[in-house]
Amino acid sequence: MNYTEQIRSYARQLKLSNLASRPFDFLAEPVPNEVFLVECLKEEINYREEKAKQRRITQACLPTFKSFDAFDLEFQKSITKWQLDQLSALNWIDGIFNLILIGPPGTGKTHLALAVGNKAVEIGYKVFFASMDNLIHILKTQEISRSSAARLKWIKECDLLIIDEMGYLPIDRLDANLFFQLISNLFENTSVVITSNKGFDGWAEIMGDSVLATALLDRLTHKCQVLSLNDESYRLANRKQIF
Ligand code: ADP
Ligand code: MG
Fold it and tell me: Which CATH superfamily hosts domain 81-237?
């Protein structure tokens, strides 16, 4: 075995998969041994970080890319530049704060939730995005579906759970209980972002149970930012027309 083959063989045994497979042509010129080793280790770390990021991106299930930069504050006047900056700083995730975005359709709730999710994944947080509908499906089928069980396992590992469109469809009592249990389990461990077209007054109706809704709100709002987006619908104002 020559030196390259030996390096690859040892790297494989040590599970340094980048070093085990990549050509050693990343250094333009011969360098001292220490520099070579430093470069190899740095490359291995970069490779691992990139792989971990790709895994986080896949697991997050974010349906589209939206950014804070593309959010037009001239249009949505119910939130200020300062609030948007605080939101996009994302350090509230470390403090395990929750975020509830309330407002009628088209006011940018999902846009902001996605911007939070995309940036969080980018800077290293574990995220999961689901519509309320989809989340209930995952909870209901966890015993019979491997993919639901895997999703739920990921949710419990996550730093941030984003639940979109709470309140569009009512949920029955059993589902409401499952949802409450999940939020209770995540309490003080995971930041939760919820978008809803209904204010808190309407949550009892969504949950089909006012006691459960109160208990849920108690958990969620313990450390929580609530933003009401109530300007005009961006979709309606910017709709494409045929003539
Ligand atoms: P909601 O979830 O409140 O119903 P969305 O976030 O889905 O609304 O917004 C509808 C569409 O309008 C999306 O394509 C979104 O990117 C866009 N949009 C909404 N508000 C803004 C805004 N203030 N600036 C830029 N785009 C916006
Ligand atoms: Mg939406």
Answer: P-loop containing nucleotide triphosphate hydrolases (3.40.50.300)
Q: Positive or negative, the Cα torsion across 43, 49, 51, 57?
A: negative
Residue from 77, 235, 236, 239 to probe ligand 1 pocket by mutation (most atoms less than 8 Å from CB): 235
- Strands 98-102 and 160-166 come out as unpaired
Question: Which residue has the least CA distance to atom 20 on ligand 1?
Answer: 108
Residue identifier of the C-alpha nearest atom 16 of ligand 1: 111
Ligand 2 centre distance from Cα of residue 106 (Å):
7
Supply the pLDDT for residue 83.
Answer: 96
The pTM (predicted TM-score) of the whole model is 0.90
Which residues have their alpha-adjacent CB atom under 5 A from ion ligand 2? 110
Q: What is the largest CA-CA distance in the chain?
A: 73
Contact 93, 191 (CB under 8 A): yes
